[in-house]
Amino acid sequence: MIRRFGTPPDGARRYKRRPGAYVALLRGDDILVTRQYLPETMDAPEIQLPGGGIDPGESPIPALHREVYEETGWHMTPPRRLGAFRRFTYMPEYGFWAEKLCTIYAARPTVRLGLPIEAGHEAIWMPKSVALRVLFNEGDAHFLSQL
């Protein structure tokens, strides 16, 4: 059984399974996170591990490299899998309720190619100790605390 973080599922709702890959990008005691701004759908920006959904036909590792580049502008070393968790949430950018199956990895950033190319994302370096307090979801924080 894959551990769940966050709100339990509502039995009256239908959830679409949405697999995703996310990464803790560590450099010394610092971690690279993203601040996601979606003013039309959120009251406040969210601090998240870089990553996102795995598109149909896409494998997790190429999806992770793509998402990291889009959200941070960085490339990374080959990632090491840490584990996975589930989270039930509404995804306003897609207009549906999702059972997010989040696989978490660890890697090191290698080179920054530019600014994030995905709208509404800002790449931020912060101490790991700060990230543990401000990450938007408990699952991300759980896996970061294991490193």
State the gist of this model.
The chain has helices at 60-72, 128-134, 138-145, and strands spanning 16-27, 30-36, 46-48, 51-53, 74-76, 80-91, 96-107, 109-112, 121-127. It is α+β, with helices and mostly antiparallel strands.
Task: Describe the structure using short key phrases.
147 residues, alpha+beta, seven-stranded mixed β-sheet, two-stranded antiparallel ribbon, 3 helices, 19% helix, globular, NUDIX_hydrolase_CS, NUDIX_hydrolase_dom, NUDIX hydrolase, NUDIX_hydrolase-like_dom_sf, hydrolase activity
Written overview of the protein:
The chain is α+β, with helices and mostly antiparallel strands and 147 residues long. It has 3 helices and 9 strands. Strands 1, 2, 3, 4, 6, 7 and 9 form a 7-stranded mixed sheet that branches. Strands 5-8 form a two-stranded antiparallel sheet. The chain starts with 15 loop residues before the first strand and ends with a helix. The mean pLDDT is 94.
- Helix tally? 3
N to C succession of SSEs: EEEEHEEEEEHH
Find the count of extended strands (DSSP E, 2+ residues). 9
Mean pLDDT: 94
Major β-sheet, in short? 7 strands, mixed
Derived from helix and strand composition plus strand pairing, the structural class reads alpha+beta
* Radius of gyration, in angstroms, nearest whole number: 15 Å
Shape from CA axes? Answer: globular
Cα(first) to Cα(last) distance is 22 Å
Q: Helicity level, as a percent range?
A: 10-25%
The fraction of residues assigned to DSSP E strands is 35-45%
- Contiguous low-pLDDT stretches (5 residues minimum) are none
